[in-house]
Specification:
With 206 residues, this protein is mainly alpha-helical. The chain has one domain (2-205). The chain contains 6 helices and no strands.
Length: 206
């Protein structure tokens, strides 16, 4: 029962993590969900930036807890893969979320500071780590003969890989006036696609 409560807690945090940027942005005049990345919500110009930064730290710790939870469940069937999955989730939780919360970016990406540099490095490492987490989860699910869950995770991995590619391409000058330039949109789609396999996994285990 205790494990179920923890799973529900993690699931709730992940859902809130996807929704909270839309709430934080309400008083932030001029902020565009489609064009601006979520990290900007934590800048000093953001009216609720401090709230977003605190939330990032909390969410990052919970994602790290998710990593430990997956390891404890899968370590008996495949300790190496379970360890890899835990490391990927911890890298995302600490790198992209906790570090981002402690070291916010500036409103304008052209304004480079020590904080924004640390933020950028942490985000890159974290996002790349989370990108491959659903793939490892899928392999573990197949090993335990959870075929539907495995197929689902693979599908979301492929879709997130496409969204990640679009997100990276959107920063290139030649795609400036295309749909790929909507960095905020692709980042949100990417997060949804990377989170969903784990939310499905949690629901399946409740």
């Amino acid at each position: 029962m205790g494990c179920n409560y923890m799973m529900i807690f993690i699931l709730a945090i992940m859902i809130i993590d996807l929704l909270i940027p839309f709430i934080i942005a309400i008083p932030y005049k001029g902020y565009s969900h489609s064009q601006t990345v979520m990290s900007v919500l934590g800048c000093k110009e953001s009216p609720l930036g401090w709230v977003y930064n605190i939330w990032m730290i909390i969410s990052g710790c919970v994602i790290t807890l998710l990593g430990y939870t997956t390891f404890s469940i899968y370590s008996k069937s495949s300790s190496k893969l379970a360890l890899i999955l835990m490391i990927l989730l911890v890298l995302y939780g600490i790198g992209d979320e906790v570090i981002s919360g402690i070291f916010p970016v500036n409103e304008k990406k052209e304004e480079i500071t020590v904080s924004s540099k640390i933020h950028g490095i942490g985000s890159v490492i974290g996002f790349i780590a989370l990108q491959f987490a659903p793939l490892i989860l899928a392999i573990l699910e197949f090993k335990e003969e959870q075929i539907l869950l495995g197929v689902s995770s693979i599908i979301f991995f492929v879709l997130s890989l496409i969204a990640f590619t679009f997100f990276i391409m959107g920063d290139k000058p030649k795609f400036k006036n295309t749909i790929l330039a909507l960095e905020g949109l692709w980042q949100r789609v990417l997060c949804l696609l990377m989170y969903t396999p784990f939310m499905i996994w949690i629901i399946a285990r409740l």
